[in-house]
Amino acid sequence: MNDDDITALKAHFEAARSHAARPSEALLARVLADAMQIQEEQAETPAPQGRAPAHEAGFWRQVFQGLGGWPALTGLATATVVGIWIGASPPSGLEGYLAEGEAAFVVDLDPWDAFDLASVIEGAM
Amino acid sequence: MPLDAMKDISDDALLVLFANGDRAAARALTLRLTPRVLAHAQRLLGNAAEAEDVAQEAMLRLWKVAPDWRQGDAKVTTWLYRVVANLCTDRLRKARPLPLDAAPEPLDTAQGADAALQGAARVDALQKALVRLPRRQRQAVVLRHLEDLGNPEIAGIMEISVEAVESLLTRGRRALAAELAGRRAELGFADEHE
Predict the structure, then answer these.
(1) B26 → closest Cβ in A19, A30, A39
(2) Residue A72 shares a structural domain with residue A101
(3) Looking at the 3D structure of chain B, how many domains does it have?
(4) In what residue span(s) does the RNA polymerase sigma-70 region domain sit (chain B) (predicted)?
(5) Model's pTM, two decimal places?
(6) Looking at the structure, do residues A74 and A109 belong to the same domain, yes or no?
(7) CATH assignment at residue B30
(8) Is the complex ipTM more than 0.90?
């Protein structure tokens, strides 16, 4: 763009800024009427409440929330299934820990850590 | 509360008052924001009747969002410029392009036109050139040169980088200059150099 282009554009922009459309009385009245109507509707509608406090929730919901919700429950379920599987069909590496005729089960104390093995001699329970 | 007492209250504080049922806040916001919203819509659309509809719809959306408005999150005007642009885009997508002979005739300023008439003719010529620009270039040019906003605010409204805004502005200005170059004598620019 040359200087003439820039000068002309500036003049156009200046003219447009000083000739901005002005709202008619009718438009302002319509906008204000909308505002009043929305205000009335919002006054009639009670403000949305936040999440229900824990004491109002049901017992199982409290247990669920206490455990940490779905993410925690998913980890817990996975660890339980793995524990049952290892108990039912122990890997060969575990056989040395178990004497013949002993019942064995795995206690999963922390799903993010290694499994702790408990060996209970039958009859000691 | 009288309107005069509200002139120093920010837009978002007025919106909170509106949400609390303050009717004076509704009037103050209507008078303060409707002119800006209407002018912006008309510049993007080039059509007065459609611009009025867009302005009313944008303000209606503002009233509805008021109870959820969080002070300090965004400027009310930034939010409104974005809503107006979206509403205009929807209308422009649905609209059939006007045949050239349906566009208003340019004002005749060739013989003895006074300054006011010449100004109106320049506005008319600019508006016609603006509606020929690609939508994003038009929006950037209007926000920068007609709404007088800074590039960072424009970037926020258009949800693009400041560099992208600068690129749109450069291309938009170049296209406008090319579009208007042929009408300089008709619009009185030849006289200004003499």
Answers:
(1) A39
(2) yes
(3) 2
(4) 32-96
(5) 0.66
(6) yes
(7) 1.10.1740.10
(8) no
